[in-house]
Write a structure and sequence with these properties.
The structure is a single chain. This protein is 41% helix and 16% strand. By secondary structure, it is α/β, with parallel strands linked by helices. The protein has 3 domains: 207 residues, 2-enoyl-CoA Hydratase, Chain A, domain 1 (Alpha-Beta Complex); 202 residues, 2-enoyl-CoA Hydratase, Chain A, domain 1, CATH 3.90.226; 38 residues, no CATH class. The strands form 3 sheets. Strands 10, 11, 12, 13, 14, 15, 16 and 17 form an 8-stranded mixed beta sheet that branches. A hairpin with a 7-residue loop joins strand 10 and strand 11. The two termini are 43 Å apart. InterPro entries: AccD/PCCB (IPR051047), AcCoA_carboxyl_beta (IPR034733), Acetyl_CoA_COase_Trfase_b_su (IPR000438), ClpP/crotonase-like_dom_sf (IPR029045), COA_CT_C (IPR011763), COA_CT_N (IPR011762). One of its GO terms (biological process) is fatty acid biosynthetic process. This is Acetyl-/propionyl-CoA carboxylase subunit beta AccD. Its EC number is 6.4.1.3.
């Protein structure tokens, strides 16, 4: 880390009370170094008492050792007046050898609040990141807008919002919430690609507990209102819940390892060597999914058998668990994985799962990650609750994401794909490049029993009136429907499925498809400014 405090001449001068053996040191430089040292000591005293790291300690956790280069160290400060700098640290470092920009709010300086100086530093950092085409990580720990500066502070938030939107989809942006984030400040991380929170200390809310109580009479704690668990499991605002600051920062490092530095680049690649155990892992796929289409299983077991070394980085693990999304590699190439989770509500698509899948597919498409979709779903979740929650509008987001994606897309139907959910989960008709199905897979408008109840309604009613065994008739009709309609044969004959594969061939089929699609190019089909996505 380049730092005035570590310069040999300055260190020598501070040890000797301001003089150096080798060269004269300006008193202002020594004073600046003293201020920097005192500021960090003050930060340690304040932050450690709360069980939190200082902003600079967090940077040490984020970046490769010794790689951080600070910009504007004393910007917004007053060296002669004894003020070391502003309440935010900005600069660039390396994560796994790749350049990344950062701004880290310093709660030990005026509660980390944002004023004109802080806003200017953040916007300058983002301008540089856009020009250099590198990701930006925000370490958030702030009391919000600096009240003393009034509209000047609010104006800076507006500038940051605009810069964040300009960067969206061009460079990866990750927000790590390591303290309070309240009021208008919450929309800075809300506009970024991923939000990471910690189980303790981090919180996000538009209006705090005191305002809530004054406005509604409701008494609620900060954690219950906007803590890390709430936003990971309930609201879906956050994408990962770290056990502590080190865990949260390590997750950010891991995610960035799968993403390119910008949308102009391809994701990094990693060395992969096949092992003797690959065949055993492939064979295990045939034992995971039960033949009974109503029996649950954990789709994570399937994913780990398909990706390199079984390594899968989940995104939004605690939110909308009937869908699973995350990052992995296939033969050393990063991919995005989207899957239904039969272990939770049979893998049904509800409003939350729809938004989770849609946003992740958009992320992958923005940053050139192929999308692998593993399908096993009975459809969209029925019921008045879902209709009133906007399943039409919010479910359409999945359609929009897949239909507009131009990265390679490979879909495998593991067991069942019914109705609208079959279409939206990476079907060939919506834009997938390669589609496969396992031998026992079922593809239809409805499941056999549901279809029979509609198609043969009169016949079943007549059998009931005549005193016949209705359930036996229903079972026979359902079996006939499955044999003729629900299986994947029709989809194969229509070309909607490219091949029927054994489960143990799944990884091989995906890898071959990705090699085939490696040269896929983006095409601009119209001159429109942008689509009008359902929001």
């Amino acid at each position: 880390m380049t730092d005035i405090m570590t310069a040999p001449a300055v260190v020598k001068a501070m040890e000797n009370g301001g003089s150096s053996d080798k060269q004269p040191i300006r008193a202002a430089i020594v004073r600046a170094a003293e201020l920097a040292r005192d500021a960090e000591e003050h930060a340690r005293t304040r932050q450690h008492a709360k069980g939190k790291h200082t902003a600079r300690e967090r940077l040490d956790l984020l970046f490769d050792t010794g790689s951080f280069q600070e910009i504007g160290r004393f910007a917004g400060g007053d060296i002669n007046g004894g003020k070391a700098g502003s309440a935010v640290i900005t600069g660039f470092g390396e994560i796994y050898g790749r350049k990344v920009g950062v701004y880290a709010q310093d709660f030990s300086v005026q509660g980390g609040t944002l004023g004109a100086a802080e806003g200017a530093k953040i916007c300058h950092l983002m301008d540089m990141a856009l020009e250099l085409k590198v990701p930006v990580v925000a370490l958030i720990d702030s009391g919000g807008a600096r009240i003393q500066e009034g509209v000047a502070a609010l104006t800076q938030y507006g500038r940051i919002f605009r810069k964040t939107c300009e960067a969206s989809g061009f460079i990866p942006q990750i927000s790590i919430i390591l303290g309070p984030c309240a009021g208008g400040a919450v929309y800075c991380p809300a506009l970024t690609d991923l939000i990471i929170m910690t189980r303790e200390n981090s919180s996000m809310f538009v209006t705090g507990p005191d305002v809530v109580k004054a406005a509604t009479g409701e008494t609620i704690s900060m954690d219950d209102l906007g803590g890390g668990l709430v936003h990971n499991a309930t609201s879906g605002v956050a994408h990962y819940l770290g056990e502590d600051e080190a865990d949260a920062i390590d997750y950010a490092r891991t995610v960035l390892a799968y993403l390119p530095s910008s949308s102009d680049d391809n994701p990094p690649t990693f060395a992969y060597a096949a092992t003797r155990g690959d065949r055993a892992v492939a064979e295990r796929l045939g034992t995971i999914v039960p033949e009974n289409d109503r029996q649950p299983y954990d789709v994570l077991d399937v994913i780990r058998c398909i990706v390199d070394y079984g390594e899968f980085v989940q995104v939004q693990e605690l939110f909308a668990p009937s869908a699973v999304v995350g990052l992995a590699c296939v033969e050393g190439h990063p991919v995005g994985i989207v899957a239904n989770q039969p272990n939770v509500n049979a893998g049904v698509l509800d409003v939350d799962a729809s938004e989770k899948v849609a946003r992740f597919v958009r992320l992958c498409d923005a940053f050139n990650l192929p999308v692998i979709t593993l399908v096993d779903t009975p459809g969209y979740k029925p019921g008045a609750e879902q209709e009133h929650a906007g399943i039409i509008r919010r479910g359409a987001k999945v359609i929009y994401a897949y239909a507009n994606a131009q990265v390679p897309m490979v879909t495998v139907i593991l067991r069942k794909a019914f109705g609208g959910a079959y279409i939206v989960m990476g079907s060939k008709s919506i834009g997938a490049d390669m589609n496969f199905a396992w031998p026992s897979s079922q593809i239809a408008v409805l499941g056999a029993k549901g279809a029979v109840n509609i198609i043969h309604r009169k016949e079943l009613q007549k059998a009931k009136e005549m005193g016949k065994d209705v359930e036996a008739l229903r079972t026979k009709l359902a079996d006939d429907y499955e044999a003729t309609t629900v299986n994947a044969n029709l989809s194969l004959e229509m070309g909607e499925i490219d091949a029927m594969i054994d489960p143990e061939q799944t990884r091989e089929a995906i890898a071959e498809s990705l090699r085939l699609l490696a040269g896929k190019k983006r095409v601009r089909r119209t001159t429109k400014h942008h689509g009008n996505q359902p929001l």
